Amino acid sequence: MGEDFQVVPQQIRVLIVDDVPIIRLSLQRILAKAGYHCREAEDVPQALKALEEEAAELVLCDIQMPGASGLDLVKALQPRIPDTSVVMVSSTEDAETAIECLQQGAFGYVLKPFQPREILVQVNGALRRRMLEISFRDREAQLARKVREQTEEIRNSREEVALRLIAASEHRDHETGSHVRRIGLYAAEMADLLGWGQERIDAIRSAAPMHDIGKIGVPDAILQKPGALTDEEWVTMRRHTSMGATILKGSAVPFIQMGARIAIGHHEKWDGTGYPKGLAGEAIPIEARITTLVDVFDAASSRRHYKESWPEGQVIELIEKGSGVHFDPRLVALFLANLDRFRKILTDNPDEAEDETDEL
């Protein structure tokens, strides 16, 4: 990786593990003379206890010991590698054991009888490799963090684009900013419950709020009419679905493409009696089916200038009656089984006072 790591013995803590006192003393003298801080343990349990009390950058361990072996220690330390590097010491040239130690995470292997220089070379090499692996791990963590930050920035930018696109229709339609934001959150929650991948979840979070963007093309006299609409006015009002799709069509951006499907399909009904195309069942895009359900839930649950919010029981009754008629029954079952999640979105994102105040 182009980095030359330098080992500073004075900053390194070493734990020497061997059941033979003279070997521990010999290793301690070699390493202490080079500047390393050394501690000793005579077996694996004592070594693990010592490491719990104080960490070590390196463990120098005999393989053959009474009770648990040096290989057992390597396996116990495996979750800590590369934070703790391990060099094995053996009195027998057992290639199979050496390979297994290295496979389990040991950084080096020394045969007895050993020379001081050989010990120091192995220790230095193990510590340099440890620093290299820690550096690599830290770089991976930094890269992952940067990717998360960039992903969040893209998500926020996308949601801002969506909210700005619908801002004009909001001001004309008496819909609140909180309402359209909740629609995105509900839709993303449903997508998550359906097991969608993160990209599609993020897409519907941004696309669902644009379901009524076509209302920007509906005349004020109809859109803001206080009383019931005439049949002719309803024909005009219903055109907001196709107008929304027209506004959003032709984009190369996936969430806007999804927005177009939602715009034209969110007034279709499961039984085929909806508009504008009279689609039925799974012929209605899944994104539109999701948005239809959560839009009705939020509209009924929320206060508007023309109505009070409905009690939750009445809202649930409306949704249950609409299952298989207005709504996809599978989505209704999933929604009701996880009602607490959607209730939390509603309560955590209340309508703000200024949402329902017309600006001069």
Give an overview of the whole structure.
57% of the residues lie in helices and 7% in strands. With 360 residues, it is an alpha/beta fold. It folds into two domains: 9-141, Rossmann fold (3-Layer(aba) Sandwich); 174-356, Hypothetical protein af1432. Strands 2-1-3-4-5 form a five-stranded parallel β-sheet, sandwiched between helices. The two termini are 62 Å apart. Mean pLDDT is 86; it is low at 354-360.
Mean pLDDT: 86
End-to-end CA span? 62 Å
Largest sheet: 5 strands, parallel
Oligomer: single chain
The string of secondary-structure elements, in order, is EHEHEHEHEHHHHHHHHHHH
Structural class: alpha/beta
Our count of helices gives: 15
List the helices and strands and how they pair.
Elements: E1 13-17, H1 21-33, E2 37-41, H2 44-53, E3 58-62, H3 70-77, E4 85-90, H4 95-103, E5 108-111, H5 116-173, H6 177-193, H7 198-207, H8 220-223, H9 231-238, H10 240-248, H11 254-265, H12 286-301, H13 312-322, H14 329-337, H15 339-348
Parallel strand pairs: 1-2, 1-3, 3-4, 4-5
Q: Summed up, what is this model?
A:
This protein is 57% helix and 7% strand.
Note the main attributes of this structure.
360 residues, Rossmann fold, 2 domains, 57% helix, 7% strand, alpha/beta, Hypothetical protein af1432
